[in-house]
Amino acid sequence: MKASVYALKGGRLEMTVTDYGARVLSLRVPDRNGVLADVAVGYATLQDYLDCPGERFFGAAVGRVANRIGGARFALDGKEYALAANDHGNTLHGGFVGIDRVLWKVVSVRPDAITLARRDPDGSEGWPGNLDIELTYTLTPDDAFKVEYKAVTDAPTLCNLSHHTFFNLTGDASKSILEHSLQIAASSFIPVDEKLIPTGEIRSVEGSAFDFRKAKPIGRDIEAAGGYDHNWCLDGSGLRPVACLSEPVSGRRMEILTDQPGIQFYSGNFFDGSYAGKDGRVIGHRCALALETQVWPDAIHHPDFPNTVLRPGETYTHTCIYKFSAR
């Protein structure tokens, strides 16, 4: 497999992207003194991404359904579909070969943007229908990284795409993210079982370790929560601010805007220091985090959850913006 790398620059941000998995390899962001550092946690070389010695999803586009589907199967229009069971009997981020493990077609490249496309074929990992996806990454003049998806299908299917950059705003993936401060505009979240599958309950965050309505250090309540790998049910609708991450030493701040109903916050619980990333730095326990905008996980099995069914003639769209500043 021959993958290529593209360099983008917009505002004060610098980014490299590969057509393998439409993934972000690096994202250089200034601190309060204007010093750039790479806040995207990942591997040192493109070959490492191909070999995948540890975490698979660093920087990648994920789908065709992001997050988990319980039991690796679903029913649609009276027909049962069996999916790739790549996560303890469930389906995670599309299966064994999701859109993160394939080459994408580069449609266009500008100094500040790249558009990529991929057809996820009918029957791949058990999914019905050919899903045609177009994805654009843009670095804007006001220091934002913008992710825009569009997708159409030729048969009824499921679609819930997301972006999976792991962040550490210190610029050093050997440092803990527990002192990062996080705010999430969500009054409720989705409890999960021991395999991280939603129970079906939509629970208020009030009085719990999952209440991020006011900014707080990630480490404050993480043990009470048993680690974070949950979906928050975002307040509001349309493209709006939904979360803010900040790091006190560098002063870096990342605001997230999206038009999606949910965000998955994963606190790096499974990183164990067994492999190294950039500059040979070991990626330790809770030294990277992901904030993935999405429709709620396992939605096809829960009638009260937002819809993930996509039909011919419809267009799936998804916008997520990571806007950077420093204080």
Number of helices: 2
What number is the mean pLDDT? 97
Structural class: mainly beta
CATH class: Mainly Beta
Helix proportion: under 10%
Compute the number of structural domains: 1
CATH A-level architecture: Distorted Sandwich
Element order: H for helix, E for strand: EEEEEHEEEEEEEEEEEEEEEEHEEEEEEE
| End-to-end separation | 43 Å
Q: Would you report the number of β strands? A: 28
The coarse silhouette is globular
Structural account:
- By secondary structure, the chain is mainly beta.
- The chain has a single domain, classed as Beta-galactosidase, Chain A, domain 5 (Distorted Sandwich).
- The strands form seven sheets. The chain has a nine-stranded antiparallel sheet, with no helix packed on it. A seven-stranded antiparallel sheet has the order 5-17-26-25-22-19-20, with no helix packed on it.
- The longest helix is centred in the N-terminal third of the chain and has 6 residues.
- It is globular, with a radius of gyration of 18 Å.
Compose a concise summary of this entry:
With 327 residues, the protein is mostly beta strands.
